[in-house]
Amino acid sequence: MKTQLIFILTISFMAIACTPQKSKTPDQWSEKELNEWFTQGEWKQGWEARPDKSVNQKEFARLYYENQYRWNKAFQFLSEQNLAELEKGRYELEGADLFVNVDEYVTRNEEDVLFEAHKKYADIQVLISGEEKIGVLPLESTTVSIPYDEEKDIMFLTAEDENYRIAEPGKFFLFFPQDAHRPTVKSTENIPVRKIVVKVRIN
Predict the structure, then answer these.
(1) Looking at CB atoms within 10 Å, which of 62, 95, 142, 146 has the fewest?
(2) How much is the average pLDDT of 148-154?
């Protein structure tokens, strides 16, 4: 009986040791683990919009797990609100640490728009109506045109490269400090659009 118990415990230990264990932090996840987590999309809190392919999944996972409560609150707002009926303006979800800007504007010509980047906040950007192009480049491939304004948390940049993505209803973008982005550019014509930007404080 004792021999059988030892045998069972040994087999059980070997089975546990051989079973792949999910890493505790996103920095240690394999590409498969990262893709599974991102694709399953539980972090969207039921929001049906789809992320643009430009999203840096690893950086998002890292920031998400640093402050799940704040990110969940952001996506919960997007999931539960009737976004098309929100009035223009600012909605504070967690004071200056988490807020939403609802804006309407006419898309602009490419030559009139600079790249921008932030240090304190990550952006969730989604169009509610209309269509625009958004340039997305690594920050290191740009040149500073207007230095960083700490109060407004923004700097403006130029770049020789182009990497435009189409922004349209049902698709959203995530921008982090290393992501230079060039929003509001017309896709085909200068048309009115309605956009929601959620500002999530990360620094």
Answers:
(1) 95
(2) 98
